[in-house]
Design goal:
- By secondary structure, the chain is an alpha/beta fold.
- Helices cover 35% and strands 16% of the residues.
- The protein is built from 31 helices and 32 strands.
- It has a ten-stranded mixed beta sheet, with helices on both faces. Strands 20-19-18-21-22-24-29 form a seven-stranded parallel beta sheet, sandwiched between helices.
- The protein starts with 6 loop residues before the first strand and ends in a 12-residue tail after the last helix.
Amino acid sequence: MNHDESVAVISMHVRLPNATGTCEGLWDLLLDGRDVFTRGPVTSRHVSITSHIEDASWFAAEHFGISDFEADLMDPQHRVLLEMAWECLESTRSDKEKITGVFSSCSPSSLFEEVVRNHPELWERHYNQVIEGTQADFLATRIAYRLGLTGPAVQIGTGCSSSLVALNQAVQALNAFQCDRALVATASLRSPRDTGYVVRQGGINSPDGVCRPFSEHANGTVPGNGVAVVMLKRLEDAVADGDHVRAVIVGSAVNNDGARKAGFAAPSVEGQIDCVASALDVAEVDAAQVRYIEAHGTGTNVGDPIELRALAKAYGTASPGRDRFLGSLKANIGHCDVAAGLLGLIKTVMVLEKGTVPAQLYARTPTTKHDWSDGAFRLPLESVDLTAGSDDAPLVAAVSSLGVGGTNAHVLLRDARDLPRGERGRVTTSYTRLSGRRPYGIGRSAEAEASVPDPVDASVRAPASARVMTALDEQTLFTMFSQHTTDPVTGADDDFFELGGDSIGLIYLLDELSENHGFDTSIEEFTETPTVSFVRERLRETAGRETAAAVVAGTEPSHVKGPLESAADDDLTTVVADVTARLARIGPTTGAVAPAGDKGVVLLTGATGFVGAFVLAELLSRGEPVVCLLRGGAERRPALVEKIQDLGLWRERHDSYLRVVAGDVALPRLGLSREDHDELNGSVGRIVHCAAWVNHIYPYERLADVNAHSAGELLEFAATGRRKSLVSVSTSAVLDSAGYPEGTEVDAAPLTALPPIGDGYGRSKAIAELYLAQAGELGVPAAVVRIPNIFGDRERFQINGSDALWSWTRAITLTGRHPSSFELPGNELFQALPADVAARVIVDAAGPGDTAGCRFVNAVPNLVCGSRSLLAGLRASGHDSLPVPDREWYGLVAALDPREVWVAGIAARSGARPDSHATRRLHRFLPDEHAEVSREVNAHAIWTPQDLMGYLGSLTGTGAPAREGGDR
């Protein structure tokens, strides 16, 4: 490539994790020998590691004339690159009259996958907008449209080599005079839900989360995130215009391996050699002149040796006294997929500018899979000054990028020391100066969709003429219009087009009005009066015609009922009276209390639940004979044993103590057969009731039989025949009522208020306590043990997947975001105990009793875990997250798959509440009448970040392996 064909790099911009938002920040990272990763626990199966770009969801939609709804449906890669392209253009703004081309690349869209999998309503209604907003085909053209660029707008897709291939295309377009300058833009942003990867035998990812290109200890690559934009210009034009030339591209080449390799995804020595040789020929550069090569260098045991062999053959031995050095940026930022090549080029430009090669990170011992004695190149184990002892000859460097599938790219550059020092472009304008930047994402648009009435099932839509007209209030129409305009529609006579609507948005709007609300008009008619007023008037006219037709036909329009009024909560007196009436059929027991030496058999309910399984293990470890009441009976015994084994709590000697009978606590007589009922009535001395339907969505009526009225059935069983003691496991959720204000102290006593009727779970457990409170009237010794959140034991860190706390926490790790209220000091989240500690307290309370009446035990610690402690534990476990407004976060959670994160099903309800800056205070508990209980629960409370780390590791599959427990 002669001087006339050389191309100048006149502007470079990056966005990388850990607030690395400038090229100088990247250079500091290289000189400091750091990487951008946040690491968590590593197991043989999973590596917990993140490198997310902190504000990737933020976007200045209004600045670019993009509506909020359109911005929500744009992939974050598209949004970020539009801002970065603007930043790059602003740094060379005096060239706005130049014809500018766009050559882009981006990774597959995680947002597209989320829409298709989790938001079919958006996919159906807004198919075109989803495709245009997420698919790479529309990236370059969107940048060109929004920034008014009239040169070629081309998207390049060749896998990992895409961005360097795009740069090669830009160079060719400049030399063909298709444009005056060329914007090369690339982004690879992984889903914010990604918190690591599964380790697979023979896979390309490092099993320890460290990328070590060309090192003896290299064992794989690490996925990364990165964005880069570069502006190119013909060299002679850049010099004439006074641009700040940062480096000069003197040659480039692209080829494909063809069939010269072991498989489609395998690299080829011959293909890479040919590509390098072609680039050297184009550049008219002697290989001996090249002092530095930024290699593809992924850190894999297959790819790196092949690349080293190809580069060594293509370049040959370096000149005496002029060592050639080799490096790879992937050790610092990971493998950024399509963006890897352009990011490597930016590093190489800075090597030429600084005259320094930074030390190669994680490569103290070069790999022995390459013969370094051939003198082709060296690994820089410390920073190297390329200018030391050299003449005035230009410094020349090269960049390689290799794509899966075999498309290779190689670029040669020289420094710009001999060129006039142009000042234009030296000062960079940051994208952060754009006004109106705020978060966007699918959660917001899904919530907006839900606010628009759609009474017609999309799968059975009728023709417009056959559909029933549905009423639309003015505010709903404002929302529908605003989804397709740049500025919000707030007035009935606001003009759709004047507020930024276009022809495509118009088609979407009219289609939605027609499909969902029976509104039919022509585009021409709407264009004459493009307002909400026109739509409302047309809807009234159509509704009037339908009403008249119904009267003629002898029918009347359907009456639309308003929302049902909420029934008032039953007061405590009324509920107690109902419980008393239900127990009236049970007479006081006349049976004898078991003598102290004859504790009898323990009847256990709920053994398959998380708490019940630990209680069963505790009883068996004490040598207690236990009969478990299970639906399905003895057939479920193997599964029960397997569950205890999975928790690490089963011992062989337990087998002889365990029996399973068929029953159901929600049925009369506990669902026992007459034979089992009579037999157990004589042998059971104690009952431990752990069974509960833990569900925070269902109403009270659906939970009442299992959670509330089962207590009455068990009291009847305890009062029949041989008198039995009864302990029932309750929950601190029974205190969630106005009668127990936040932060108040609670004593070990019967309830004086009930949770509201809308709290089905808390209310059902509270009514169970009301049953037990009357145990004395039936002559039954009873105890109610209120427990907090229950985690696994501290040896194995087991997780209860049905616990709402862990589901919400999982949502934080998947979204990479948390509610901003979690940043508030003093915001209390939960009180928690290890399950084995709770089981000991419960079993101790179930000791043989001889005094009729009910004792209340508050087995809840006063040590509280706050939201800040949870976030600190997540960070320490390798799961950093960013704060977003509470409502936005709930919208993100609602977009998750409820099969994976069950609270996604209730997140929308939580998100409907206004954002609050008030902190939450939990109850405190006065010492139990047996002070040892209070000492026990407070001594073992789980409340610090360090307490949480093992459990967080189990939640994400990255926890420390279970320690072997001793034989109990």
